[in-house]
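To: structure subgroup
Subject: Chain for Friday's discussion

All,

I'm putting the inputs and outputs inline so they're searchable in the archive.
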Amino acid sequence: MDQKQLTDLLTKMTLEEKIAQLLQLTSNLHEGTEDQGQITGPIEEMGLTTDMVRASGSVLGLSGAASIIALQQNYMKNSRLGIPLLFMADVVHGFKTIFPIPLAIGCSWDLELAEKSAEIAARESAVSGIHVTFAPMVDLVRDPRWGRVMETTGEDPYLNSLFARAFVRGYQGSALAEDNERLAACVKHFAAYGAAEGGRDYNTVDMSERQLREYYLPAYKAALDEGCEMVMASFNTVDGIPASGNEKLMRGILRDEWGFDGILISDWASIREMIAHGAAEDDREAAYRAMRAGVDIEMMTPCYVHHLPNLIKSGLIDESLIDEAVMRILQLKNKLGLFENPFRGADPERERELLFCDEHRQTAYDLAVKSSVLLKNNGVLPLQPDSNVALIGPFADQEDILGWWSCVGAKEDAVKLGTAMKERISGKLTITAGCNFDSMDANQLELALDAAREADVIVLALGEESEMSGEGGSRTDITLPKAQLELVQHLKQLNKPIAAVIFNGRPLDLQGIFDEADAVLEAWFPGSEGGAAIADLLIGRMNPSGRLTMSFPQSVGQVPVYYNVFNTGRPMDPSKTGERYVSKYIDSPNEPLLPFGYGLSYTTFEFGELQLSRSEITADQHLTARIRVTNTGARTGVETVQLYIRDMTGEVVRPLRELKGFQQLKLQPGESKIAEFTISEDMLRYHHSDLSFTSDPGRFQLFVGPNSRDCLQASFKLV
């Protein structure tokens, strides 16, 4: 259809039909599905009529080509004007082939592979009938207590923005209208959901607009600049107003300032939740505020269908707002080609060929390898293939390695660590749990001790169950469960080398394992091929190259702890001891246990002299920073060379370091390569107190190194 045809279609719609297009329901409320609801069930509870359901514009959560084709066929029979349904789902880190969680993908620092993972997820989803994914989630996070840190790529706005773009490119491709193996992407959660107070899900967010713009908004804007078709409103308040009813945020920034004209969708029931927030008296006021804010689709509450007709009749809402929202929905359906082919890419036969195919699993393996981060190694890793190994812990032979939001991925399809180790260890391998995730009995412990006594090395497979992170998975205690820490203490007494592999969805407080183990490998939730990838890393078939994108705290008492902090008026000087009246803890270092950008390898790298091409830049002149990096070890490895800058004096205070660029260098033993970075004036801009985005003349420090802490530095001026 062209725009005139869409406009003609809109004029033919009744007000009730238009408003129904704004309603999104789960599939069980529709006719034509196996678990369809009845008027006496969920439909009645929501106060919906059969006509409302039959006219609703989109479906949440259904997948499978045959099921979606059947529902679409039934729906089209009842559609007076032949307007097809949109099918949406949370395809966050894979559809059937599950990739590492997004936080792990961030730790790969591999934008190309991240894009490929989204492309594969889109291909599997599209052939199964999905049109839209609720991804990428680009919320900046600084608090590992929040369970949803597993959905984001970390604590840095620059890196998050790059990954946001990569994921959108992967999901949507370059020709969404013609490519039936792509999905429309929906960036979430707008805005600042990652800053929930106390790391508690759905909680209040309160920050200055300057901080919001400087750190939290850039990744959303990057996704939209890449062409992202949809935005999801967050659950939280922003400046005291729930996002779903926040006119300044949605109309002011998103629509007017950024020019976004795509679909804005609520999160699950978030429009009605304005009542619980205390920002709306009832469903009617919630509908009023959400429509005024520009929310086009209401997910799983009926405020719009019940109250927009009366709000229009009373003159409180202009029908033109409804028309704008419906047109955006029609335009996306048209862009996806649904008017010509309501089933789009849904194909049961091709679905069987594509889902979880070898090519897709290989990419999942590659990403699991590159996402894992070696946190510590006192020479225990890599294992010798002929070693006698005791693989102990609740993850020793565990299939729960997919992580939260694993869509239709099946745990039983995941490659378990124990299974993979059996195929790779030529020496004796004994596998035993030692304990459950959060409990231990005497028999489990005795079996573990017996296995450890006969082994040359102990590999501990520890961590969180997937249910311990993700949505609703906030924790105040982010150490390993007590039973696992007790297991570590018992095994430590045997004085055997210990290598720990940690499976988890957040940065943990590693007290009780980091000092006790000789090596620590952060595996995250590595996805479908996780066991194979981790086993190959343990035996040295693959070399770890992941680098952290969230800092690991010394203890939860430091949280939030992140690298790009401000200085204080009384900064602590580490060379001076005993000072009291400086900004410090009396019982802990200020610094995290492991900083942003950190990660080890089985080889070593040496950074040469940091050279700048000039000492001053202007708005029209840039400088080049160059550094030689050499592989000084015996294995081929990848070093992620990171560039940070500090503005020494700003109109408002500036962070001690800010990531401005990075390069990944693959180096053979003895090989050297030059990492080169161009620094221009636009990289030095920030939001001032009046919210203008400009730079300040003056002195800057430039840092280059393997992480945010251990850097070489030089200075330059902006004149």
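Points worth raising on Friday:
The longest strand covers residues 637-647.
The mean pLDDT is 97.

D.
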